[in-house]
Amino acid sequence: MTQNQHLHIAGRWQSGISTVENRNPSDLSDLIGHYDQASAEQLDQALDAAREAQPVWWAAGIQKRHDVLMAIGTELMARAGEIGRIIAREEGKPLAEGKGETYRAGQFFTYYAAECLRNQGDLAESVRPGIEIDVRREPVGVVAIVSPWNFPVATPAWKIAPALAFGNAVVWKPANLTPASAVALAEIIARQDIPPGLFNLVLGSGREVGQRLVESPKVDAISFTGSVGVGRGIAAAAVANMTKVQMEMGSKNPMLIMDDCDLDLAVTHAANAAFGGTGQKCTAASRLIVHSTIHDQFAERLVAAAKAFKVGHALQDGTQIGPVVSESQLAQNLAYVEKGRAEGAELLCGGDRVERETQGYFMAPAVLAGTRNDMTVNREEMFAPITCLIKADNYAEALSIANDSQFGLTAGIMTRSLSRASHFRANMRAGCVMVNLPTAGTDYHVPFGGRGASSFGSREQGRYAAEFYTSVKTAYVAAGAPE
Ligand code: NDP
């Protein structure tokens, strides 16, 4: 790549038709750069190149795919500090989290490197004599990947790695807020010995490049992570073309804090799950449903924990909560705090913009108490360092509140009771349930996804990703008698 050539299309780095400015949300005077935006023609060029490259990649075989994915993963892990710094600078998560994210992205690639070797099918007896049946997984073809800014390297990694592992070509449109992380990941992938056009990075706005990509009949499958609103539009576009689609969207993850829990552990897990990553996680704990007998004690300790977090520049030593990603996200967050208060919630701490040495989008983590589950702050995903306390008089009521949501991504319970924990695992309508753990924080080798408005289509990650990135073919063979 040369400077100002940020698009990787048909095996070449290219300039776009315009650029967008990328600034550090921890320090608005820090200009990271201007990033190219692709034209409609460039997007089409990427799709055509992907179509040509895909069969070549599939034919190259499992050892080749294994080696390429392993090399990408190994390099990501080795460069976690450097790439983590790019993430911290442009997205605003503390440096340690940026490093951790990059390392995790590497693990997705090394995991799927090994998965290349496990692409095994089934053999079946036929009900008709003299016929053999085998069932194999084949690539779906050209996969469009649309990813968000909150995990700008890990989220695309958990999509690109299985897409390539199972023999597909990729056209990736990352979020326009985090182009530098996208270019860093793309440089590693593009440097590998892969057919030109197998992997394409197409930067551009969601409304233009994103929309055109998901509406294209040249796409065989779409994997999206982002907001529910955009997800609905993508689902409609996919259905119109009969394109396979998989989506992971928002949530209002509940955490039940029961009267028999380890209170210190509950406070630590709830605070980390609510405010880690500045609350900008689809797995953030945003509804804390607390048993009334321990509610006030828990609230007091949670407020102390929230106030103790060090909010500041993502690259500064000791920072635990970085800035909010953008001005519009910050304005939305502050509006949610006001909305909560207007609907009758009590603001126990935070919820305001805070000043630091550098001009950035800093916000003090907020705890809203006395909330009801029907309030806006408990219905809509805020993606903010804001959490809401809801009182419940017993476990059954707490579970019923937790399940009263259009979403169902992750859910947690803090309890020492085996029967409550077991009942919760079985009866909480969510894709991931956590017992005595935060709602955020998942492994890379097992499925991830949710129910209701949180997810659509088959699961991501682990072996389950094969369902989306492959198409199953059943072959019937009548060999006949030898001459
Ligand atoms: P979006 O859903 O708008 O963006 C996610 C991705 O989709 C980005 O790459 C975006 O591009 C792209 N996109 C936007 N519009 C279209 C479109 N019409 N067709 C195709 N692609 C499109 O989320 P935002 O980044 O705007 O965040 C808004 C809210 O979404 C957050 O406050 C949060 O509630 C939720 N969100 C949830 C995430 C999750 O992990 N569940 C992740 C991110 C956001 P571009 O960035 O260029 O607009």
What key attributes describe this structure?
single chain, 483 residues, alpha/beta, Aldehyde Dehydrogenase, Chain A, domain 2, 2 domains, seven-stranded mixed beta sheet, binds NADPH dihydro-nicotinamide-adenine-dinucleotide phosphate, oxidoreductase activity, acting on the aldehyde or oxo group of donors, NAD or NADP as acceptor
What's a concise summary of this model?
The protein has helices at about 40-60, 60-80, 80-90, 95-115, 155-165, 180-190, 205-215, 230-240, 265-275, 295-310, 325-340, 375-380, 395-405, 420-425, 465-470, and strands at about 5-10, 10-15, 20-25, 25-35, 120-125, 130-140, 140-145, 170-175, 200, 220-225, 245-250, 255, 285-290, 345-350, 365-370, 385-390, 405-410, 410-415, 430-435, 450, 455, 470-475. The protein has about 475 residues and is α/β, with parallel strands linked by helices.
CATH architecture of the largest domain: 3-Layer(aba) Sandwich
For the biggest β-sheet, the strand order reads 14-15-16-13-12-18-19
Q: How far is the first residue's CA from the last residue's CA?
A: 60 Å
Chain-averaged pLDDT: 97
Overall, the morphology is globular
The portion of residues forming beta strands comes to: 15-25%
Helicity, as a percent range: 25-40%
CATH class of the largest domain: Alpha Beta
Major sheet size, sense and barrel closure:
7 strands, mixed
CA radius of gyration: 23 Å
Helix count from the secondary structure assignment: 15
Instruction: Assign the structural class, choosing from mainly alpha, mainly beta, alpha/beta, alpha+beta, or little secondary structure.
Output: alpha/beta
How many structural domains can be distinguished in the coordinates?
Answer: 2
List unreliable stretches of 5+ residues.
none
Q: Mind telling me the CATH superfamily name of the largest domain?
A: Aldehyde Dehydrogenase, Chain A, domain 1
The hetero compounds bound to this protein are: NADPH dihydro-nicotinamide-adenine-dinucleotide phosphate
CATH topology of the largest domain: Aldehyde Dehydrogenase, Chain A, domain 1
* Count of extended strands: 22
InterPro entries: Ald_DH/histidinol_DH, Ald_DH_C, Ald_DH_N, Aldehyde_DH_dom
Organism: Gemmobacter caeni
Pfam families: Aldedh
Family: Belongs to the aldehyde dehydrogenase family.
